[in-house]
Structures are given as C-alpha cells and as structure tokens.
C-alpha cells in the first residue's frame, strides 16, 4: 500500500460546479485518507453536487470568500493527514497521481513536491513547477511544451498552486499561504518562503494532473500579481540587495510597466494600486541567508510567455542578458 492513506487532499472552490464532479471522482480513486472541500461562498450548484453525490467528502462552507490562500489554510487546519495536498477544483487527476506525488516525501525531509500538470485535454503541458525569478516575478514552467517533455524528476525553484504536497507539520511551520494575497502569485510567495527556510521543491513527472488553464493577464490580474511581487521583494530582500540587484529590479519594472501600459488606463491604474497597497502593508522580513536564497531561485524568464511581437521578444532577450550578468555577479 502506498502513502496515499496518510494524505488529506484540500480543494478550495468558488462556483466550480462545472468541474467539481470530475475532480472529486478522480481524486477519490486515489484513496486518500480524506478529501476536504473548502467552499468560499459558491452561488452555483457546487455545494449541492458535493452534498448529494459525495457524502464522504468533508465540506467546509465559508459565509464569505477567504481567497485561495485563506481557504487552503483553513482546510489544512482541519486536516488529519500526515501529508496535505493542495489541489485546484478545475482539475482531474490520474489514478496513481497521489502515491507518486507522496513517495519522495516518504524518503526525504524538508521537501515539497509538485506534479506534471497538463492542459485539461492532455494536449500540452500546463506546468512543470514554477519559475520563481529573483526579481519577484513568477512564470509557469514548461507552459505549452509537448506533453512528453519534462519527464525527469528534478528540483525546481517553485511549485504551481494548481497542486503541491507537503507534510502538514511543515506547512504549518512555514505559516501557509499569506492571506493578504487574495489570489495569484501566492504560490510564488510561498515557494520563496519554503526555499528561505531550507526546503527543496521537487518536480515529480510521474504524478499527473489535468487543469483547465489559459494564460491571460487582464488588468485586474496585474494588481494581484504585482502586489505579491512587491511583498516578495520586501519580505525576502533587504536594502543591500535592492542596491546590488538594481539593474534587474529596474528591468522588471520596465517589463511590468510596459505590459500595464499596453492594457490601457485600467492596466496603469491597477499597477499603481499594487504599488500603493503593498507599501501600506506591514510586511515582516524573513531572516535568512539571502545570497543562498537567491542561488535557489531562477535568473532567466521565459521569452515566449505573453510575447506577441518581435519587439516583445527582443526586449525579453535584453532583459535576460541583464538578469544573467547581474545575478552571476551578486551570487558568485
């Protein structure tokens, strides 16, 4: 028997009636210790489906939307398993998904695992972990690559929020998701936190999830992504590294401002709002070996994501050149 009977699978929902039936059916085939659904105030048929068709599932109904991080933190508090597995509701999983995801945790301490996530139709890769960049940016690793690529287990800089597994005690020890980050890039921030505390993140390609995903960054999403990025920079770096990394941090601002401007007035407004709201936050510094932490994250950004013109690609090539040189000098 595999380790699945030691795992609590936590799924946060908000109007996911379209997906929840297939998601729960596939998860239950993996024989976890328990499945906990935290509903953030759905107004569709999500709750009805769970109550009528899945009585074995533990359902927690929130009167208000706690956000993705807040919902998962609540679910973990109610979990009985040695391991907690965070899973998006708009997914389905393969039959051996859970045991494969948990096997490395049985062998190694201070570890987080993340699966191969394919697009819902199985045609391409959605995520093979997360690219956590030293400027606070986060990108999906392997997005739209061939489904049969990224087949080797390896350590990565971040885990995709669609799914990851960790010991419950370790999740609680690092503090779980930052509930001030309502949605988006909260997985990037938590990846930084685990890395800062000496944990490693392992990509497990034999554990497979299917996720309904399309890369889109409308103006309102800019706000959440950038707010989390500024929190990361305030929490994990200090003035010494702001100065040392200034060329790269400036380049990240040029990239994000450029994208925001292309979204028009709304994009500019939400970018400003992200700056103002993050500055107002009381962000606690994480004391860690910052040079070692920087060595654990990525220094290049993908040049094919949110790239629409030859000029876009050229700018990202220049950015990566600056990132590479600056990073190598600072972390040598």
From TrEMBL:
It holds the Pfam family Glycos_transf_2. InterPro entries: Glyco_trans_2-like, Nucleotide-diphossugar_trans. It comes from Thermococcus sibiricus. This is Putative glycosyltransferase. Belongs to the glycosyltransferase 2 family. PANTHER family: GALACTOFURANOSYLTRANSFERASE GLFT2, RHAMNOSYLTRANSFERASE WBBL. Gene3D superfamilies: Spore Coat Polysaccharide Biosynthesis Protein SpsA, Chain A. SUPFAM superfamilies: Nucleotide-diphospho-sugar transferases.
